[in-house]
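Researcher: Go.
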Amino acid sequence: MYRLIYLAFGFFFIACNISNEKQNIYYSIDIAYPSEHYNEVLDGRLILLIATDSETEPRFQLRDGPNTCQGFGMDVEDWQPGTNISFAMESFGYPIEHFAQLPASDYTVQVLFHKYETFERSDGHTVKMPMDRGEGQQWNRAPGNVYSTPGKFHLDPNNQEVLNIKLDNIIPQIEEPEDTEYVKHIKIKSDLLSEFWGRDMYLGAHILLPHGWADHPEVKYPLAIFHGHFPSDFGGWRTTPPDPDLTPVYSERFKVDGYNKFVQEEEYSFYKSWTGPDFPRVIAIEIQHANPFYDDSYAVNSENIGPYGDAITYELIPHIEKEFRGIGEGWARFTYGGSTGGWEALAVQVKYPKEYNGCYAACPDPIDFRAFCLTNIYEDENAYYKEGPFKRTLIPGHRDFLGNIDAMLRDMNHRELVLGTKSRSGQQWDIWEAVYSPVGKDGYPRRIWDKKSGLIDKEIAEYWKENYDLAYIMKRDWAKYGNDWKGKIKIYCGDMDNYYLNNAVYLAEEFLESTTDPYYDGEVDYGDRAEHCWNGDQTQPNHISRLRYNQMFIPRWAEEVKTRSPKGADVTSWRY
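Model: Structure:
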């Protein structure tokens, strides 16, 4: 309806449509219980996907950019075998918020059910979460999730029609990678994590053994810890020459044709370097620490995720060093990685200053929350808008190297809200919240901001500051740990990072360069017009340097450790 607002001192009025009444939705979608795959009461997230592109399944088209499909999500609890569910058509959607606003047209439709399990945690909370099943918390690829065969339908929200959907497909289990001469795979039960989650929880790692490891049983080796997202196997490694018959694939991200050939060439080049005469002999590892919230834990202790920092540092790493002849001391370990891995590399160095001897943090997730991408969580009132007295301007979330924007921060968060409530989307903004926030009364993470409106909770911001704002923590604790951090902190970022991560690096650098007693004696560097994942190599384009983390940082650390090792430390036997 329209409400007429008269101005008593003037001769005109303003007509405002301020109706908040829900629009009538006549269309309904009924979904059959997947009896051929399950015979149990189910909990989870039901995701309705609607696309105009029929070449790719809709479950692979929901994204932040302009070419996304449409999605709606609803929570499901106690879905009884043999019953149907009517999709709640008033469910929140992205990018169109309400189903009633969907234009009548022909679409490709698909429904996916993301299965949850119940956890009785040691903190007294019971939560329902998607357990990782070996895929690294990917809702559209998680083994055991069921989905419908995409079908073409005419949808008109104003029609009184019923669409029947059958969840007739199940995502198969994933095969574990096999050990080779150089690459080994381990998985251990973590007592710390199992106690927290109330069930057996595991940590894994892919381990690249140094050349000559079996021929030098007397040698103990340093540990190179490559942090990053969930690895299916040790990345960037290939023992055979590139496939000469490989069909070139164009990289939309890097605007490079035949990028898959570049990848194989770099993988094989790394193998030749690793087995060559001059490469330092170290054990390199990639950690598998997927959890019910995300594809990795951010390698720190968290009220919601659990004590992953301690579990990795005091359970997994000592186990690897014992089994594969690592030196087993803090001076002989270092960390490196990009993006999430960059944040983790710096975070473990900050939080465990004596357990690691150097970090190379490339394009790290926000390390100063005054620049949480483009939001200052301490001073801004709203994460989604810059607000003035008469205007609200949406805050960008993603750009290219020329500053062209293709996603707003609000839209990125709304996409996550379709995939899961209570920080359960398995996506980027929700995992930051899950790691950094305290536990709420319902057992789920407390929101840093309202997911729909963007209104920031200042109490939660202060909790984030004291526990996970790495720049603030270093400044706060420099007098205590400065000598342990000296020379160990190296940070790299492109000045046109796609997610504006360079802004936080600027602020962290400002503090680091101001340090005295001791001076931090590290390095901060920027790539001109370089996008996300730039890692400090000024000689190569980003699409090449991002493939060379091992080749770049292992030799660098091997030289630096000569000046940062305790008296009498063995820095020679592993250099054969």
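Model: The CA atoms of residues 185 and 206 lie 5 Å apart.
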